[in-house]
């Protein structure tokens, strides 16, 4: 009887110890699997963070400006946002240059917003600096606002012929993106 009890006790201890060891093993195995899984998850995350070829291709936009007559503008797309490319008339250039820069909410001259030798080409993001609507004025017959540039109908911001904010709630001029003329008729934006 006593021997049976001891045997049973030993057996229980043995089994208990065995269970603990098995649990340890299972936990170690689970941690290892998590470690491997963690790495496996990390790799796609890192590879997602690197720009894909599509994104790199989209990071610049090439625009042929040869067909844009003075007084006309086109809307292009740059990094999924609208860009206005506008060929200013001499009168629009004159109007922009006639404004004392210091009187502006966001003081900038037309020369600062265009490239030397290409002062007639006004290239700006087509995104209102108030809350991000797309202003009117680039399309044929669209309302250009009180200052002859662009008009944002969302809350009534008026931009002048240098796309500078002149009236309404927008705090800043339309943003001029990075760009360069790669030829007299081709602009690379970005
Ligand atoms: S978003 Fe243009 S005026 Fe508000």
TrEMBL record:
<dbReference type="InterPro" id="IPR005805">
    <property type="entry name" value="Rieske_Fe-S_prot_C"/>
</dbReference>
<keyword id="KW-0408">Iron</keyword>
<keyword id="KW-0479">Metal-binding</keyword>
<protein>
    <recommendedName>
        <fullName>Ubiquinol-cytochrome c reductase iron-sulfur subunit</fullName>
        <ecNumber>7.1.1.8</ecNumber>
    </recommendedName>
</protein>
<keyword id="KW-0472">Membrane</keyword>
<keyword id="KW-0001">2Fe-2S</keyword>
<dbReference type="InterPro" id="IPR017941">
    <property type="entry name" value="Rieske_2Fe-2S"/>
</dbReference>
<keyword id="KW-1003">Cell membrane</keyword>
<dbReference type="Pfam" id="PF10399">
    <property type="entry name" value="UCR_Fe-S_N"/>
</dbReference>
<dbReference type="Pfam" id="PF00355">
    <property type="entry name" value="Rieske"/>
</dbReference>
<dbReference type="GO" id="GO:0046872">
    <property type="term" value="F:metal ion binding"/>
</dbReference>
<keyword id="KW-1278">Translocase</keyword>
<dbReference type="InterPro" id="IPR019470">
    <property type="entry name" value="Ubiq_cytC_Rdtase_Fe-S_su_TAT"/>
</dbReference>
<dbReference type="InterPro" id="IPR006317">
    <property type="entry name" value="Ubiquinol_cyt_c_Rdtase_Fe-S-su"/>
</dbReference>
<dbReference type="GO" id="GO:0051537">
    <property type="term" value="F:2 iron, 2 sulfur cluster binding"/>
</dbReference>
<keyword id="KW-1133">Transmembrane helix</keyword>
<keyword id="KW-0812">Transmembrane</keyword>
<dbReference type="InterPro" id="IPR036922">
    <property type="entry name" value="Rieske_2Fe-2S_sf"/>
</dbReference>
<comment type="subunit">
    <text>The main subunits of complex b-c1 are: cytochrome b, cytochrome c1 and the Rieske protein.</text>
</comment>
<dbReference type="InterPro" id="IPR014349">
    <property type="entry name" value="Rieske_Fe-S_prot"/>
</dbReference>
<dbReference type="InterPro" id="IPR006311">
    <property type="entry name" value="TAT_signal"/>
</dbReference>
<keyword id="KW-0249">Electron transport</keyword>
<keyword id="KW-0411">Iron-sulfur</keyword>
<dbReference type="GO" id="GO:0005886">
    <property type="term" value="C:plasma membrane"/>
</dbReference>
<keyword id="KW-1015">Disulfide bond</keyword>
<keyword id="KW-0813">Transport</keyword>
<comment type="similarity">
    <text>Belongs to the Rieske iron-sulfur protein family.</text>
</comment>
<feature type="domain" description="Rieske">
    <location>
        <begin position="90"/>
        <end position="188"/>
    </location>
</feature>
<feature type="transmembrane region" description="Helical">
    <location>
        <begin position="25"/>
        <end position="46"/>
    </location>
</feature>
<dbReference type="GO" id="GO:0008121">
    <property type="term" value="F:quinol-cytochrome-c reductase activity"/>
</dbReference>
<comment type="function">
    <text>Component of the ubiquinol-cytochrome c reductase complex (complex III or cytochrome b-c1 complex), which is a respiratory chain that generates an electrochemical potential coupled to ATP synthesis.</text>
</comment>
